Amino acid sequence: MRSRRLLREVLLPVALGLLGIAVLLPAPAPAQEEVTTSLRRYREHEAATGIYEEYEVRPRRVRPLVGVPEVLRRTSPYASYKPRAAAEAGKRSRLLDSHAGLEFYEQRQCQVCHVEQANHSHTLRGNVTCRHCHGGEPIAGINYYFSPLNPIRRYAQVCAKCHEGATASFATFLVHEPHPGTLSTRKTFPSLYYANWFMFVLIVGTLGFFGTHTLVWVVREIFVGIKQRKKPELEPHGEPEDEGPGKPEND
Amino acid sequence: MKAPESPKMTEPVRILRFNVLDRLFHLVIMVTFLIQAATGLGRALYPTAWGRGLTNFFGGYASATTIHNRVGIFMLIAFAVHIAYILAKVEWKAWRQSLFNQDSLVPTLRDVRHLGQKIRWFFGLGPPPTFDRWTYWEKFDYWAVFWGLPILGVTGLMLMFPLGFSHIMPGWVLNVVLLLHRAEALLAMLYIFIVHFTIGHFRRGMFPMNECMFAGSVELEKEQLEKPSWIARLEYEGKLEEVMVPGPPRWYRVLYFVFGYTALAVGLYLLFNIILYRSYIEWH
Questions:
Q1: What ipTM was predicted for this assembly?
Q2: Which residue in A83, A98, A84, A79 sits closest to A145, CA to CA?
Q3: pTM of the complete model
């Protein structure tokens, strides 16, 4: 009996608490370890041979429960990755120099052409500039295989620069979020689109109903006045509510 | 001014409406809500000069974020305490009676009827409804916070631990969550600063300050107009004498008047700036 009580009152809450902590806290920050093969660590390999290989970066140990279907579904590593809300991403997104051949490119600033893209919270609040993530010239398209922003490695080479321990799932957060209310968003990011309209209807509905209700009420009370109301209605108030009499004692 | 201290007037009879714990919960949600509103709005409007100034009041962007996060966790804990309180208050052996009686905040069909009557009264088509202890808009206020707080709390926790949460769901969910958090927060602020303030304080007969949430008690004479059924029920049950309480002491009145007006002013100041800077709020 006692052990059962112990189980119920101590062990179960502790286990639930630990589970909660495990869910809430970020995973133990995985070093963004560079490896060439599963057998040899890159640095050892590099030091021993002096040969610099092309390598991938992947976090150690962490296996997120959530995969990124856009990445997993690709049939070959060279297949184009079409991120959400970037339906218009054309073939330039696959070039090594995505701005190749553009006239007067050197004289322009990013936000002159990428008006919408320049306006997001990473820039406005975090002081992150375009080049922090997209790199220097030539700016590779995000679907170019060796681009740091290619989703197969963007979490490690871009996101993790600030967000220590970023995973591929984490990196699917859309920094250049589309406008949630537009029809094109319904195709590219439906959950955002429907969440937006749900909240819009909720806000307009609640404030519309209670705002009008309150406004009419205030106006009505100004015209009626409490003192006038007092006289004719004290008698009708005597009538008890339907459950008034015969009501058993509560509380 | 009501001038209760004038020697000619006899002290009005007051009856208890909110016990100490009710008032304490209201005080906690009031202070934390205003802090969350200021730190949240300041950061949502950070690109504007006003938003920057507001976050600077809290020590800058990072500091305002930390305050927002910690106060948010505190609110969730306070909410858990509140749930424990209401669960302890219900008499589970007679739960129907306990949940659906007139002293309970659970909405019933009567509230729908009262709303209909009230709307008819707006247009002069009938007498106003005779309310019992809680009116339908008071119940709505309570349940709006009751559902709004966990929604804001859960979405806020997700945004507070984005790495942890992206382990159990895709990272793009955070885009949706951020939108929900902001929209829900805006709804809460607009509702409180417009509807709740107006009903509580700016109506004729309430203006300029409704003291009952601080004093805990209301004047019997006024309540006979506002909540006639409640008074009638108390008289019928012979409990009217039981709930009579002395008025709040003078120092306490001074204290809560200063505090209450400050809170009102902060709320209206934020509301004014929400309206002023509405086009700068980032929804995405």
A1: 0.89
A2: A79
A3: 0.76
